């Protein structure tokens, strides 16, 4: 339903009757979204003859001499004031504008054609603007007559316009079936083309990354945003229709998921700087104090030798003791500040050690162990020092947890979920996918269709190792051995070359996976699984959680995690424990799979990687 | 569609045909969700005679003597091992169990009835358990025979069970139409009732707050979670169907929204402790160093006096200089560490000053100014020292932004949104609302219906002040004057007493609202609006944003916000500016409005307020 399926409803309508639906106005302003014109199956032809209000940003604009046969409407007062004579002149003569640009001078009446007695007689021209309002990938051509306003004001890319006019069939055969003959210009938000950083027609994704606040105005970025939007809605739809409850897990937690990798602590990150500073500071202080102690000792020796009065000696001795104590204190603190971490937090805002959640899954288990099937969809955090093009500090994840469910149930659910996303993105975003296909990755649609069409291959980790061992043609970097971590290279070989479709690898060696996964009877493997897709790599990680109190307590102890910190987590096993399984899907990875984008920073509105400069 | 409307589909089916749909099994395990039995219009009667697998947690359990006429099935081996003789005895004799409890002794054969030659001959009993799996508010009664396992293992509240059996019509007229006669117990997750903190039948919401990881097992908390889930889905549905694009805004930002209130900084919170520690440390060091300098000076004087060799004097002088430098350095740092804040961040994880976003709206404007209608739905943060029962450090918000839209458009959209939420919660969560009505707030359903049924009143702030001024009966704490902030008391008076329905108050005094709101021609007011609901108070805050570059630049300057920090924000006005408006809705406030809960900590899965102790 909704935005995307407006399109399919229209298509539906077309197939059923030759009558086209009427203009669909945006509910919260009088304007018509371009999607409801250009996204129609008839490309908007059915709306020709309608008077419409549209808004958008200029993608490109040309000025041309007014066609001879066009009807001239009576000149209306320009909506924008403060226009100089030269601006009017320049706006009405494209060739003159070009010359002026070259000369970088403005307003040169000597160059203007004809006489300049009184106000310049305008040479009629029209602007052909391709505008876009972000509602779809297509631009609408709008035609503005020069009598309305100096066209120079609206021609630069990035200019915003709100215009009213008549929708007409395009006279010259072109890309689009309809165009808008503007009758009223209601708003112009101008752009100084010399200053606007996105003036150029083609700009790389890498260049655009430097302008996160402006880049959604460029088609590839807007298209990714719409695809991401559609995938997000489909994700909610999948879980809603399968009876899951959406739960919002905390971002700020007192559970340090160190067991999973590095975390962003409220303090652990920023304190590093402080630690360093302090260490330098203390080292310097210590140096001075040690010298002072040495001198004090010498002085005492001197006092003793010189048989000074006892009082002086006593003072000197007390002084020395004080210095010694301080030195001891500083020395004690030198190697590490870790012991103090606990107490430092007593003064932070929350009165305890807090972190940004990197795995919401542990918290989600609480809700699974009461509402039975739950999911989280929101931001998660990590502080890995990975390549910034592959890893974000802040990313959106879908975390799923099912009670009364074993490994296979979670695998089935994850597989269904990915297939559902493939079907729905093909249905809801055909035009954006077409754009990605043309501009980013010519294999993207084929890849989505393939994932959506047949069940995934399923192999155990042990089987995967066997296959890799047998391989003779392809040489892997590391020796293949049971127990090793499968690298991207291995996974890619299995999914791209061997199976040529998504694969589920399950039953991993215990030590390669997190502590909370269920230990198999062989005591060597755990009930974990990953889903690997061709090209995209690992899309899903999941598994069955350890529900047995003794086993999970042992794991927590072995890792030295601090039983009191995980006491609440163990409670779930102490009281009414159930078998439960789940999985985690990274939204950015799905966007990469769908669009073919190689850099994760292009999949999220405001990327946050280590050292990135966002706004 | 989906989970909630499964119910309405069933109802629909019932109305159309007398045939009831078949058992609806949960797709990712063989069990049947209780909702698809007890949520049916016929209360599950149509499923009587079906063999079902259900799972859940025991809400309450009773043991009774087995009815005489019941068919005795052949004893099966118990699924759970390690059961002592006394446990079996105790499980089979309720009276004995009570006595045992009083004596707090276990296994006292002398008290057991009958002879104990060989294994004890069991006195047949049955357990009547009310179990719940979180899928709906209703509990299913399951009946377990004592030959299957010692009933003491499954009777305590909180025990998890996975059982298979036959669904039967309830023989004794009671709350529910059907019950499950268990044939197989597949899993038991036991509970030590003496240790389980939620053993008591009735527990206050305040008590439950101490157990955020276990409390969703209690009906009120689970009910709130389902209501929250339903509201979240409806929110997405509303924006999707109106053509909005869901955008995920950053949590970690470099934009310190200090202009809005306090923010959670990555460093600003935790560094405080360090600052204090350092100050103490440095003060101590400085003391020692100053003494050292004094001594060095004395020594130099002595050396000079004693005409020592030049070399010794030079060394002593260098030594003194070093100590002086360090002292100077320490002194310089003493009064404040604020100057260093900037440089400290250069070594933090992101290489710059970072904050947790408190208002995502500024970022959202970037996407509105390119995709035209966008919304964010996710966590936001604040560090206000407000009452913890009314304010969370971490809360979920819906932020909406519309381009080419003025104040009225945003007001219309917000009003429609709230009305939509009311309609859909009534449709999708009838049983949970019924529970809230009975247990929390007997006016909640009436309130929701009222909001959903008629347009909101609309008054300007100036009109609101006039009304308050004219009021003679009610005495307000503060004197009513134009320019004052409307307090909860004023707002409540207007919505509850004067209008008796939700009101939109708009055009607020400039100084009472954020800097980015559009200044009206009177230069005194801004295009802001709030929506106030009876009982709940302020649900929405919004307004039209200042799109004029000069005006917004002036506001940024006046507030001393640092133009370079807001440069990106000003860019939106520099290049292709458009009129745009938006609003913000707190999900927790909506949950409070819907459920009638008074404490915000009960509306969110894991509340995070200042000094709260969550897990």
From TrEMBL, chains A, B:
Gene3D superfamilies referenced in this protein's UniProt entry, alphabetically: Bira Bifunctional Protein, Domain 2
Pfam families attached to this UniProt entry: tRNA-synt_2
Domain Aminoacyl-tRNA synthetase class II (D/K/N): 347-610
EC number: 6.1.1.22
A molecular function GO annotation: ligase activity
Transmembrane segments: none
InterPro entries: Aa-tRNA-synt_II, aa-tRNA-synth_II/BPL/LPL, Asn-tRNA-ligase
Top-level EC class as recorded in UniProt: ligase
Keyword tags: Aminoacyl-tRNA synthetase, ATP-binding, Coiled coil, Ligase, Nucleotide-binding, Protein biosynthesis
Coiled-coil segments: 286-323
Family note: Belongs to the class-II aminoacyl-tRNA synthetase family.
Full protein name: asparagine--tRNA ligase
Species, as recorded: Platanthera guangdongensis
Gene name linked to the record: SYNC2
